[in-house]
Specification:
Keywords: Cobalamin biosynthesis, Methyltransferase, S-adenosyl-L-methionine, Transferase
Strand content: 15-25%
Pathway: Cofactor biosynthesis; adenosylcobalamin biosynthesis; cob(II)yrinate a,c-diamide from sirohydrochlorin (anaerobic route): step 6/10
Number of helices: 12
Number of strands: 14
GO biological process, one term: anaerobic cobalamin biosynthetic process
Helix content: 25-40%
Pfam families: CbiD (PF01888)
Largest sheet: 5 strands, mixed
Family: Belongs to the CbiD family.
Radius of gyration: 23 Å
Length: 369
């Protein structure tokens, strides 16, 4: 049985409790009890270090433990600074320090659950009239963020304190696949056309574009097994809707998309660029691009300066290949002679703008929105 752990907001909250305890008593807490709110339970979070940093401030350090989850934040340190505060406004002011990402408006990416968690756990420790300033710092956040798709969802310069629960589920384990299968089975009973989204941000963007949430299925990195499952359940059409840096892996035959297992993105873009006749020097630039987003920006740059249409040509070729390889995957893994489920794809960029729709993706989007 896989071990679940806790999300980043829980460790930030544990550190805040330990820092406040130091301010109050000048004593070190080895563990801090955190009320998770969701679920309704109290857990003990180990405190790695805590110290006063001024007469009115203290800093505590915890370390992320998401359990048996292939999570790039595993073991990353979380620093939480707590200071007495005499300004106007709220009793607890929460800020993002180094390594906490910002949204497009410049606001720290500390979302609803994290805010609620910190406020509920700290308010009960304050006396009437006391106010504190809480600053969450992720020393490795900026570098870790370069390995995520955060920019695709409007978060830059670091990681977000995201989530709706304190429990970090091991999304890449067989047990979690069963949870996704249960959701798929329920929705396949209602709809013949479904939308596969890899993560929460894709689900949110799909809603904003007008897709019925009841048709959307979260896949995490388990796209391949869930495609086959959907086919066996009689689903006739599937729209693959996702960030290009993840979804394009399917064009290379990679149907478990976790970065620990396989990548191949630059090779996929290079192959399609070469087939379509892009110049050698530009293929070299794409091949040495650190991220798929950088390769996309170079193609757009070529279109801007030369009046070409490389972005649409290359990404349409990739999208069509995603559709074809998805249907081939279903056919090769289902051992059924019945008609293969139809797949279409829609890829979007870091600014939440659709880059391209495959031919089938266009048809499905018109049907769904």
């Amino acid at each position: 049985m896989s071990r679940s752990g806790y999300t980043l907001p829980v460790f930030a909250c544990g550190g805040a409790i330990a820092a406040l305890y130091w301010l109050r008593h000048c004593r070190i807490l080895n563990t801090a009890g955190v009320d998770l709110i969701s679920p309704d339970q109290i857990v003990e979070i180990p405190i790695e270090q805590v110290a006063g940093i001024s007469e009115s401030g203290a800093l505590a350090i915890t370390r992320s433990d998401p359990g048996d989850n292939l999570d790039l934040t595993k073991h990353t340190p979380i620093w939480t600074k707590v200071e007495w505060y005499d300004g106007d406004g709220e009793t607890i002011v929460i800020r993002g320090g180094e390594g906490i990402g910002k949204d497009l408006q410049g606001t720290a990416a500390i979302y609803t659950y994290a805010q609620q968690l910190l406020r509920k756990n700290l308010e009960r420790l304050l006396f009437p009239g006391e106010k504190i300033l809480v600053t969450v710092i992720l020393p490795e956040g900026r570098s870790l963020a370069t390995r995520t798709s955060n920019p695709a969802f409007g978060v830059v310069e670091g990681l977000s304190l995201l989530g709706t629960s304190g429990i970090s589920q091991p999304l890449s384990t067989p047990e979690q696949l069963e949870v996704f299968r249960d959701d798929l089975r329920a929705k396949a009973k209602e709809f013949n056309t479904l939308v596969f989204c890899i993560g929460e941000n894709g689900l949110d963007l799909g809603k904003k574009l007008g897709i019925n949430p009841q048709r959307m299925v979260k896949t995490a990195n388990w796209i391949g097994p869930l495609l086959v499952e959907a086919h066996l359940l009689g689903v006739e059409e599937i729209l693959l809707f996702g960030y290009h840096g993840k979804l394009m892996k399917l064009a290379g035959g990679i149907f478990h998309t976790h970065h620990h297992l396989a990548d191949g993105r630059r090779e996929i873009i290079v192959a399609h660029s070469a087939i379509l006749g892009l110049k050698y020097e530009d293929i070299q630039i794409i091949f040495h691009s650190p991220r798929a987003e950088d390769a996309l920006q170079h193609l757009r740059f070529l279109d801007t300066i030369g009046g070409s249409n490389w972005t649409n040509q290359i990404y349409f070729s990739i999208a069509q290949t995603i559709d074809n390889r998805s249907q081939e995957y279903i056919k090769s893994h289902s051992n059924q002679s019945v008609k293969t489920t139809v797949c279409g794809s829609v890829l979007f960029d870091r600014n939440r703008e659709v880059i391209i729709k495959s031919q089938t993706g266009c048809v499905l989007m018109e049907k769904l929105c």
